[in-house]
Amino acid sequence: MESALDFHTARALLEWQIELGATEAIGDAPVDRYALPDVAPWSGKARSNPAASAAPRAGRNAPAAGTIPMAETDPVDLARQAAQGAMTLDALRAALAVFDLCDLKKGARNLVFCDGVPEARVMIIGEAPGREEDRAGRPFVGRAGQLLDRMLQAVNLNRQSSVYITNVLPWRPPHNRDPKPDEIAMMVPFLQRHVELANPDVLVLVGNHSCQAVLGKRGILRLRGNWTEGFGKPVLPMTHPAYLLRTPLAKREAWADLLSLQARLRGT
Ligand code: URA
Q1: What is residue 73's predicted lDDT score, i.e. its pLDDT?
Q2: pTM of the full predicted structure?
């Protein structure tokens, strides 16, 4: 069959599917599931439960008995309830692992929750996992993460003993696209609880998206280097290491910010 797609679009779509994990061809022809009869697959002649057969047939959009219609549930409220119910970091990780309302989870290989030392005085909040982080299940392991490690090392900090790291989003956005406002809003209750449970002395927000999540504003080039407060903690916004990789000249200011962090930790 001749496709209406050009080669490059078709290839990009194929690569995207492979990234999502669709690596096996199940059938030769696509199935339009919207065109199928509105009958559950288990409701054939073989059904053995007469009470179930007698039940009125629900419409396509009707909620199953006992479930809450989605329109009546605010995902941010549900996220808040789930996050507040977690009394430890492990419980918070488990609560995120079963939180199904964020579509990013469907396309991600792994939940990327944290790295480093939970008792550390410094908690770094990045944006979202990229490809390597998604594979490893750990934040900041790619090129930007390696630069972050070198930056921390320069002021005697490291994730083995003195830094705790997480991201605003625990699942990789497709093609590393920017997080959407509703995704950030849904994950903020988890992030806030994460900060409460880890209870660091200071937060370092790297990049615009973590500033948006914690401070409710962006404009990292204006915010960076200026101590402020967020989630009840002293907060230092800094430029993202990925930005520093693209803009080496900005490393000078990042160095000044690291020295400011070091001074703060020393109480000077
Ligand atoms: N960038 C981030 O903000 N977080 C990561 O974990 C990796 C890259």
Answers
A1: 82
A2: 0.75
